[in-house]
Amino acid sequence: MISSHVWWNLLVITCCAFTPRPYSCISRKCTPRHHILLTTISSHSPKLSGSVVLGVEWEDSMKRLASEALVSVLFPTNIFLTKKWTIDDIAVELETCSGEKYTEDTEKALKKLLRRYQRIVLENGISYEERQASRKRLADLVIGTSVMRLRHFYILSTTRHSTFEKRLDIAGRDSNNLNQQKDLIFYVVQSMVNLHADYMAQCDDNSVEPGANCLHFQNDLDRITFTHSIPRFLVKLLIEQYGVEQTESMASVFNKPGPITIRRNRIKCPTDKMLSDRLFKEDSIPSLLLSSIRTGNESDIAAPNGCLMLVANDSWSPYKKSIWSLNAWKDGWFEVQDAGSQLIAEATEVKPGDIVIDYCAGNGGKTFSMASQMYEASSCGLDNFKGCIIAHDVDHSRLKQLKGTLPRIGITSNETVAIYTTIDPGVELKERSADVVLVDVPCSSSGVLRRRPSQRFHLQEVEITKSFPSIQIQILNQASALVKQGGSLIYATCSISHYENEDVVMQFENQEGFESLWEPWSFSMSEKSHCRTFLPFYNGTDGFFIARWKKLR
To answer: What's the Cα-to-Cα distance from 159 to each of 145, 170, 351, rounded to whole Å?
Structure first.
C-alpha cells in the first residue's frame, strides 16, 4: 500500500522560493536540506481554497506543461528522434537512461518549468491562489510521474491502448519522420502524466494500492519493480540480500514521506522542553520527543539525546512556512537531521578534550552534532578541557558552507569546543593524532531514497557493487592512519547494500596486520556486535550503517 504522493509538492518550496540556497536531490551525501523536502502536504486536488475549484481547462494545461518538461527527463534528447521505437525500446530508456548525461535531472526540469510558469503569470495576471495551486500541481505531476515512471509505462504498455498501438505503428512505418517520432514520445509522456494524475486521485492511506487489481506479474521481481517503480537491478540486489518480504516493505517505504526530525543544539538550547515550547509558542508547531528507536529486540536503542519529531497540522506545515524561516532555527536552537544520522554522531562517543576528525564532513551535519555532544558533557562537569573537531572534505565548497554556519550554532564564541576545517590556514591532518575519526564515506545513498525519490534512477549497479566499495575502502584506510593509540575509528554510510557496508568492513578487517592494530568496539555488552544497520521499514529511521573499532597500538 502506497500513501498519497502529494508529498512531492514540497519540492516546490525550494523551486518557487528562488532562494540562493543550494538545492540538489541527487548529491551523494545526505544533507539537512534534503531531509525536509519529503513531507506530507494535505491536498493534491486542483482546488484554490474552500469550495473554489479550478476547471478542466486548467488541469489540462497543467498536464501539458508537465509533459513538455518531462520529455527531456525521460528520454535522451540526442537519440530519441533518430530510431524506430518499439515498446521494449521505450521501457529500456525509461529505466536506464536517466543516469546518462543526455537526459535532464528531474528537479532541474521542474525549476525550468516553474520559471517558465512565472513568465506566464506575469503576462496574464494570474491570482495568487491560482499561482500557488498551479505550482503545487506542476510539482506533483513532474516529480511524481518521473518517480513512478516504471509503474505508469507498465500499465500503458500492457493494457495496449489502441491509440498507443496506432501511434507506434505510424512512427514505425516512417521512422525518418521526426515529427511523428516527436509525436510518439510526447504521447507516451503525456499518457504517463495522465496516469499519474489518476493515481494521485486514488491514493489514500486507508486504501489498497491504486490500480493494483489490474496489474499482473510473472514473478516477485517484476511485481516489486513495476508496482513501486524501482529499477530492476536494485530490486534484484535487495531481494538477494533481504529476501522478497523485506524488499517489498523497503520499496513501499521508499514511496512514502519520512518523518521530520530535528536535533536540539545543546550549545544554544539547554533543554528539550525549551525548544518544544518555543516551537509551539512562536509557530504553533507540535513536537514529540523520541525516547527510543525500535529494533524488534527485547530492548530498543535509546534515541539520540535531543531528537524531536515535528508534527504537521492545520496551523503549520513546511509548505506554509519553511523550517529554515523559523526564528528557532535562525537562532541556532536546532538542526534538521534524521534520527539515524544523529545515531552515527552519537556512536563516536566523543568527550570534552578529544581531538576529533570528521573525515568526510560534507556540510557539517555530524560535525555540529559531535560538537553539541562535547559541549553538553563539559557543561555537566565531566571535563573542562577544550575539544577540537577538524572537518575535512575534498569538496572545499562544502567546507566553506560549514564555516558559514558556525556563528549561527554558537561555535565561534564557545570556550568548550572548537571547529576547524582543512581549508583553514595552518590546519593539516597528521597521522596518529586523533582520539576519534569519523568516516562517513560517499555512497549510493540507497538508504535515503524516500528523501530523494528521483535518486533511484541515477543509481547504477556497477557503482553499488564495485565503484563505491573500491573508493570506500581506500578512504577508510586513509582515515584509519589518523587514529592514535587507544583512539576510535567509526565507519558509516547511508546505504543499505552489503557491498558498501559489511563487505567493506570485512575487507578492512581481512587486511594483513589488522588484528595487531585494531579490535572491534561493540555498542554494548548485551549487543556485542560492533556493526549496526538501520532500515526505514524496520527502525523508522532512514537507512544507515555503522561500524566501530578501537586502535590497540
So the answer is: 18, 19, 62
Query: Residue 140 burial by CB count (10 A; 0-12/13-18/19+): exposed, middle or buried?
Result: buried
Name the grid cell of 451.
528523501
Distances (CA, A) of 73 to 128, 142, 196: 29, 10, 16
- Which of 83-92, 192-201, 264-273, 525-534 has the least mean pLDDT? 83-92
Rounded Cα distance between 534 and 295, Å, is 9
Residue 446: what pLDDT? 96
On the 0-12 / 13-18 / 19+ scale of CB atoms within 10 A, 394 is exposed
Give yes or no for residue 176 having a pLDDT over 80.
no
pLDDT per residue over 254-273, tens digit each? Answer: 998 889 999 999 999 999 99
370 with 350: CB under 8 angstroms? yes
Burial 369-388 (b: 16+ CB within 10 A, else e): bbbbbbbbbbeeeeeeeebb
CB distance 120 to 126 below 8 Å: yes
C-alpha cell at 538: 524496520
What angle do the packed helices 365-379 and 396-409 form, to 10 degrees?
30
- Answer with the residue of higher pLDDT: 313 or 79: 313
Nearest CA among 45, 62, 248, 229 for reference residue 142: 62
Euclidean distance between CA atoms 226 and 217, whole angstroms: 9
H helices of 348-467, where? 365-379, 396-409, 461-462
The pair phi, psi for residue 307, each rounded to 5°, is -95, 115
What is the rounded distance in angstroms from the CA atom of residue 234 to the CA atom of residue 297?
28
Cβ pair 332, 364 in contact under 8 A:
no
